[in-house]
Amino acid sequence: MDMQTSLLDRLFASGLLIETGVDGLYGRSGKFEDVIAAFERLIETFGGDDGAEAIRFPPGMNRAHFEGSGYMKSFPQLAGTVHSFCGCELDHMNLLQCMAEGEDWTKDQQATDIVLTPAACYPLYPTIAKRGPLPAGGGLFDLQSYCFRHEPSKDPARMQLFRMREYVRMGTPAEVQDFRQLWMERGQKLIETVGLPVHVDVANDPFFGRAGKMLANNQRDQNLKFELLIPVTSTANPTACLSFNYHQDHFGSTWGLKTADGGTAHTACVGFGLERIALALFAHHGLDTNDWPAPVRKALWGA
Ligand code: AMP
Ligand code: ZN
């Protein structure tokens, strides 16, 4: 049995994660959630005094905003759309018959105005652009959302529905690059505080198709994204648990987001993969939080 399946089976057996029959779609126990809640409080001890505006969006976003973001150019294979039944009574009878006969009842479902959120910050840019130009000094936001990515896997660290906590900075290139640098340093300290080994590397996102190769090269060559990697099921292939993105003026020009002096805003975000961090903690310190090293318990629960 490989290490990924073995960790997943141990998580199911201990009740920390709850099987649903779909790879990457799990229930979470109270103990699992305690770790996530404690880790989010720890994030706030690092970032809580920066004056970020907290906003919570639901895990679905406006389809028009999703279309405008350009996500389908890069990651069509990961996106999830919400479809519903919009037919008449006859269509309903056909649908029930289709289901009864074990046929595909989903083929006539219609797209709704909602798409599952692929990353916590996607709904933010059009929302803030609608307010008008940023104030002097730019903007800083604190987000958390469940996100969807269609990447079914037996690797417990590759879920289809998972939470991302993010800080997002909008402003001049210097403001957003300083923010990203600050969080690359803070992120490493934060993870060291909970007793996990880390290293930071440039990221390799799974851009789709041949055109995607160019996007991936561009991302790497311009250092647009770094990831903080922690071994979860493999030391040779550590898992990206935090990411540090510099979008340049992509979202600024897409949504007409301006700085106070009328320039196109640049944006950057730091994203914490909350389930991945919890899994890294369980994988390194054991499945019973009572047995975790005292300094780790102190950092998370104060005792
Ligand atoms: P990304 O936008 O790909 O950089 O994702 C932001 C963060 O979300 C990553 O650093 C991961 O920690 C986390 N993440 C991404 N994909 C998944 C997934 N399939 N399952 C769990 N966490 C994920
Ligand atoms: Zn983001």
UniProtKB/TrEMBL annotation:
<dbReference type="GO" id="GO:0016874">
    <property type="term" value="F:ligase activity"/>
</dbReference>
<protein>
    <submittedName>
        <fullName>Amino acid--[acyl-carrier-protein] ligase</fullName>
        <ecNumber>6.2.1.n2</ecNumber>
    </submittedName>
</protein>
<keyword id="KW-0436">Ligase</keyword>
<dbReference type="InterPro" id="IPR045864">
    <property type="entry name" value="aa-tRNA-synth_II/BPL/LPL"/>
</dbReference>
